[in-house]
Amino acid sequence: MKNNRRNFIRQAGQLAFGLSLFSMTSCEDTPPKATAQAQDSPPEIKPPWNFDISLAQWSLHRRLKGGEMDNLDFAAVAREEFGLSGVEYVNQFFMDKAKDRSYLGEMKKRAADNGVKSLLIMVDGEGYLGDLEASKRKKAVENHFKWMDAALLLGCHSIRVNAAGEGSREEVAKAAAEGLRGLAELGEKIGLNVIVENHGGYSSDGAWLSGIMQQINMPNCGTLPDFGNFCIQRSDEERWEDQRCLEEYDRYLGVQQLMPFAKAVSAKSNDFDEKGNEMHTDYMRVMQTVKEAGYSGWVGIEYEGNQLSEAEGIKATKALLEKVRDALR
């Protein structure tokens, strides 16, 4: 009887010790409630890559220059005819209105009435920002001030300028950096970007222009990569339409070099094949570069071709961008 009792007590003690070990092991192995919930929750879903499509005013330059369309109607045409909600103005179509606040106010109103966002003004004809002569460069910088004011009034995020000049590669780079910095410093104070397009000459050299961006190193000074403007030297025919490209920079390399600084993108188009692809630029390839750069802003249609009408060319470019966007998501 005593042995049985002694055995019972010993077995009970062993059982209690075993339960204690089990309890300790279970507590250590069981994850906290919050951790278990985190493990059960679905993984974070990253939204698909996206960009909005805008219309560059130059796409309609024949209509505008031919008197078939008025600058004030641009926003309405972009929305009603092409279903686009962002516009990029070209200053030469309202060159004498930069300081006309009433006229600019009407432009702003018409854009708002049509649910269209004014994105930027492309500024040409105001002098060389890379002029080697300091006084001329200073004058060119000052000539852009009125367009910065106009862009602010319209609600734009940027003005697009040109890094042009005559001289050696190194001389123009130094002068252009000084001219652009002068504009960017004002832009920084008023909340406006100053962006440079590859627009012929040295600026169509991606290494040259990206080098200037690195030299300036200001967050509001960037680029506007244009898929088709990589002609460094043209022939000297009088009419621009008759000129041939004598030296061209690799457009895919150029876009890759300029995208790290991009605050807008210009989808240049000219000719299309029977499948709707642009014949001079592989849009799938170049937009993959845009995606890899982490850019998800506006991509502006800039149709310059002759085979299709302006309206047909704009629609073809829009369809191609939409197809590529769907494929790359």
Description:
The protein is an alpha/beta fold and 329 residues long. The protein is built from eleven helices and ten strands. The strands form two sheets. It has an eight-stranded parallel sheet, with helices on one face. Strands 7-8 form a two-stranded antiparallel ribbon. The longest helix has 28 residues, at 2-29. It is globular. Residues 1-31 have low confidence and may be disordered.
Q: What's the overall geometry?
A: globular
DSSP helix count?
Answer: 11
Q: N-to-C SSE series?
A: HHEHHEHEHEHEHEEEHEHEH
Stretches where pLDDT is under 50 for at least 5 consecutive residues are 1-31
Largest sheet: 8 strands, parallel
Distance between the termini: 81 Å
Strand segment count: 10
State Rg.
30 Å
Query: Strand order of the main beta sheet, please?
Result: 6-5-4-3-2-1-10-9
What is the SS-derived class?
alpha/beta
Bin the helical content: 40-55%
**Beta-strand content:** 5-15%
> What average pLDDT do the residues reach?
90
Write the layout of secondary structure elements.
Layout: H1 2-29, H2 33-40, E1 52-56, H3 61-65, H4 74-80, E2 86-90, H5 101-113, E3 117-122, H6 134-154, E4 158-161, H7 169-190, E5 193-197, H8 206-216, E6 221-224, E7 231-234, E8 245-248, H9 251-258, E9 265-269, H10 283-292, E10 298-303, H11 310-328
Parallel strand pairs: 1-2, 1-10, 2-3, 3-4, 4-5, 5-6, 9-10
Antiparallel strand pairs: 7-8
Helix pairs in contact: 6-7, 7-8, 8-9, 10-11
Properties at a glance:
two-stranded antiparallel ribbon, 329 residues, globular, disordered N terminus, alpha/beta
Quick description:
This protein is α/β, with parallel strands linked by helices and 329 residues long. The chain contains 11 helices and 10 strands.
